[in-house]
Amino acid sequence: MIKKIGILTGGGDCPGLNPAIRGCVERALDFGIESVGILDGWKGLIEGRTIPLNLSDVESIVGKGGTILGTSRTNPYKKENGVDKCLANIKSLNLDAIVALGGEDTLGVATKLYKEKNVPVVGVPKTMDNDLSATDYTFGFDTAVTIAVDAAERLIDTGTSHRRIMVLEVMGRHAGWVALFTGLASGADWILVPEKEPEIDKMCEHLKKVHQRKKYALVVVSEGINIPGMKTGKEELDQFGHMILKKRGVGEQIADIIEEKTKIETRVAVIGHIQRGGKPTLFDRILGTRVGVKAAELVNEGKFGYMVALKGNDVVPVPLEEATSKLKVITPDWLKFMETFFK
Ligand code: F6P
Predict the structure, then answer these.
(1) Residue to mutate, 67, 169, 171, ligand 1, most ligand atoms under 8 Å from C-beta
(2) Sorting pLDDT into bands at 50, 70 and 90, what band is 234?
(3) pTM over 0.85
(4) pLDDT(233) > 80
(5) Is ligand 1 within 6 A of the CB of residue 127?
(6) SS3 at position 242
(7) Is the dihedral of CA 244, 13, 169, 328 positive or negative?
(8) With 90 as the cut, is the pLDDT of residue 316 above it?
(9) Whose Cα sits closest to atom 14 in ligand 1?
(10) Which atom belonging to ligand 1 lies closest to the Cα atom of 128?
(11) pLDDT grade, residue 108 (50/70/90)?
């Protein structure tokens, strides 16, 4: 019988984590299950640092951004005795199960702990990148894109006044969903995503035409694109082997190229972590709440090794392995759809 669970949030934070924590804790209470919060992701499990999660700790957090538990990009498999320490702390803290809220990295660790060490784990998907397979959407994405669209519209205002081309760089790592949805929703004139090789000359010709007509043009660029001949600068990797993309300055480089080729004054804005802060949108509050509640239900049923996914309008369990085996990137259909608006 499950009496006590440990909840952790790992990887980049995003709005929707607190609603999910609240959902999980409150539903667990219905089953008589006590929750504790493991601080700072897998790092906190390695170090055995927890806080109590009672009703009073979670009942007012649904509208708060970030995560009340803290997070980190610590990979126990890359730390000396990291996995053994996790196992020892699960035992000493009397945890009957772990609920891990994370993206591909955090859930990748959850998958391995479940498969290799039999740790009873349930996964909850989160990421502003929306790049997790086996779920239609992850919370964090809607808020991030809402913020990016607001930024894009502000750039259009100032770009129009100055008759400039404006470039907006958004996050998203190796999937272009944030750029695609931001561009579509703000009426961008070109969108650069990692899934499609940039056609620089074609884009610049198009921007010249658009600028003549509208007196401004907007380009949305995903941080993960590659430009031929690009200056890569400092290439630092995190503990999961991912390049820290913001250090490459893609937006700046694209703006320089555009200005040089079009001879039109061009400016760039990089909104970075602003996309990850602030209050979750309605969509992210409800999705976070639903997947958190479902995670507690899976724990209560003893259904471990699963992640809670959104399929259509249903919240359903899917094997963790399915969710973490490959990245969900933009499909060719979406790329074709996007081009409808490059007129
Ligand atoms: O995975 C979420 C994300 O926001 C990416 O879009 C971005 O590349 C990365 O995290 C930034 O990570 P950090 O917060 O460690 O700088």
Answers:
(1) 171
(2) low
(3) yes
(4) no
(5) yes
(6) coil
(7) positive
(8) yes
(9) 12
(10) 2
(11) very high
